[in-house]
């Protein structure tokens, strides 16, 4: 029995246009050259990351473990499950071809993430002058984490799978806090490989997704693409899931604020991983300004939860339906996000306490700074495309501009 070759969409570039000689080729060559050039400036990078301190390889191990957790969580989102509705409808897109395309897209994303994590581990190990045992442990950890991410992403979602990256991040925290060496990291890599073997069998493959799942994935991808084209980052904030016990009551500003937060609780696990990443990053790279690190981590953890305010702010009709003024929306949502920032700051405090790190008190001002920056991002006015490109860029970076300026001030003051 012969298998029909998959139909190629006319006009679509192969390999992302890397080999067509256009600007994609230039960007690929420039990016690859910059990556290799970093290995020729190891002393400068050592001074930037570690200063005059000795390299704490247990902290570096913990940092790589948390990066593997982020790698795993990224694949569990299964953003590669999509197909163009036009291709599904009008082209001879057989089921076997559809599965092949989805699987190929998954492995392409997987290879990119492996390169990112592996390159980071190799560069940091080279900067610190790691021994042979350190290199072996880093390679084993990256390989086992990549295998575990692949075997779980290739099957449909199972209940509680998002807890896996959190457990792995906590394992990285334990490695950094206990000062464990390469042998312990290799044992952890072996345990991850055993878990990967255990979950590799059974379950329904992701490539067998139906038309509805493929079209939903395409719609989400199209929304992200339009957000990038029109420089509207609020479109990237995830949608809220319904909260039944709140939706049955009369809507108020406070209830809608909490509904927007509770409907996005699935991103709370990412906040835990980010807290571990920031705390271990501060221990591993003592020369990097800790104020900027805390502010960036807090902003990344809090910005998904301001999506409810962003949806109201972009729809004047909804604001009129609610009957709340702008200052009331800012105040109520600000109090709710400030409470979340306090929780995340407490979690980060537990991480630093576990690691034995005591940052100076002005550094903790990064948490309220991130809260204000996230609210500023959500309350951005509509884009004005009549201005120049630079002015439009400043409009798109609303909230991030405050975060950058505040981080510089915190870094200088500490």
TrEMBL record:
Keyword Translocase applies: no
UniProt keyword terms in alphabetical order: Membrane, Transmembrane, Transmembrane helix
Pfam families found in the cross-reference section: DUF6297
InterPro entries: DUF6297 (IPR046264)
Superkingdom classification of source: Bacteria
Bilayer-crossing regions: 21-39, 45-72, 107-128, 134-151, 163-181, 187-203, 265-285, 291-310, 331-355, 361-378
Protein name: Uncharacterized protein
Taxonomic lineage of the native organism: Bacteria, Bacillati, Actinomycetota, Actinomycetes, Pseudonocardiales
